[in-house]
Amino acid sequence: MRLAAAPISWGVCEVPGWGYQLDRDRVLDDAARLGLKEIEAGPPGFLPSDAKEARALVSRRGMRVIGGFVTAVLHRADRLDAELASVETQAKWLADLGAELLVLAAATGSQDYDKPVDLMEPEWRTLLAALPRVQAIATRHGLDVALHPHVGTVIERSGAIEHVLRDSQIQLCLDTGHVFVGGTDPGRLAREHTDRIRHVHLKDADRALAQAVRDRSMPYAAAVARGLFRPLGSGDAGIAGVLATLKAAGYKGWGVLEQDIALSGPPTEANDPARDVATSRDFAQAHA
Length: 288
Hints:
Helix content: 40-55%
Structural class: alpha/beta
Low-confidence stretches: none
Number of domains: 1
CATH topology: TIM Barrel
CATH class: Alpha Beta
């Protein structure tokens, strides 16, 4: 498995009020120092909107962007054309950066990830019909697509994931932490649907905080701030087993070290995000 970095591991997130946002030079310099020469693009504004400028910024550190997280509301017929136009714009930018993958989240329409939406059947039909259109957009720009089950989106819980697997052909981004929080065993998903996994986000998770988010007794952002996601091997999501399954299946894609955090202020030596990324890197290298 090839390992890559993600800005969210340094607390850089698109959610308003998420926490203290480190500047991109700090994030990119840390990632390069840790030997992670590939990185996802991060939220809008993390890299320059001019793709040529962004590509040069990353290339100066001997790095490249492999993909980006793109959200779109795909279950609302009244919003679909505008949402697909936004996907097109972001896909072009990613392609101009030299990326290979569009990581798609089926958003609810909210700016945060605290409230999932259970779709009605007409909304499911709209969503499922929209997925091939997203794939067509990505293909026009030379990108693959991986649908990302994510807390607080319309594809969070096991039933929604199974619905997508059964009724579409889209490939998945297996985010070990998010599917665990949503109530799915990431190891089982890796074993039973290896052929559908195009991309992997690697994060561990705390069982008690995951349950609190799952039953909505704690907001998602609050749980993240309290340490919902853990460095690989220090949580309850069974990451060693997931890595063993993917290795046995011959998975050759990316494993993005993506431990979502929320910083309350400038990091100190005691809470340096790079230290946890290094821990996850070492765990992944030992088990993948």
